[in-house]
Amino acid sequence: MNWYLLALISALFSASAAIVEKKALIKDKALNFSFILALFNLVLSVPFFWAADGVSLFEPRMYILFAKTFLGALSFLFIMKGLKNMQISGALPLLVLTPGLVAIAGYVIPGHTVSGAEWIGMGLLLAGTYALQLGQGKGILDPFKLFIKTKGRIYILIALGIFTLTSILDKILLSGYKLNPVTFFAWQHLFLFVHFSIFVIVLYLKGEKINLMNSVKISWKWILLVSIFTIIYRYTQIEAVKAGNVAMVLSLKRTSVFFAAVIGGTLFKDTNLLRKSIATVIMLAGAAVILIY
Question: How much is the pTM?
């Protein structure tokens, strides 16, 4: 199968997963949902351990993967909280900012520079973000002020900061330490389940009410569907990266944000959907410029 077809399949299933996540989170808590999803993902990823390379848990790269998945679990939880508190067409496009933040992070690392194309891409990301927030305040800076002050957007902002670091760690693991993508895929789901289990235990010991059985009762069908979609889009992305250009694959994969914002926004009757869709396209163009050039 052609890599671009695999990347498009990955994008479509990623968008589908995001839409179903929003549906499940209407009645469920973000942590409960995330824990049960991590369990389902682990069960569905068990067959991948058979194709994974033999690794020792005491290798430096496994320590890095464990730390990276801890950050990944945190960022996913914050995204779910943001998705629960925001319209899907306003929350998901903000995740497209990740390439710009990674480029900025590279700028502060000695020996790294930001190219002219990357500056153009970041400009488009900024313009798209501004357009996404328009209508929320009368002053020219009000959209950015409200972005920082709004609860749901704060969750997304925290997740973006964490995503920037995990994206760099992904590159280190796959390129620097040559960790096999399938091995990475399998162990990542095991570690994510461990981290979410720790989150649940810690909060339970602190006295927070965590009714996992109730979440299973009301959401298990939705969560299982999200898990199936998640395994499919993550695996097809790995296969696309193996067969094609990484930057092009990631650019195609990010079109999932547009699909989810438009389709999900229509289903959930989001406001200002046309403006948000145009803003999303601008942001995707900026991300593509950064990734490809």
Answer: 0.86
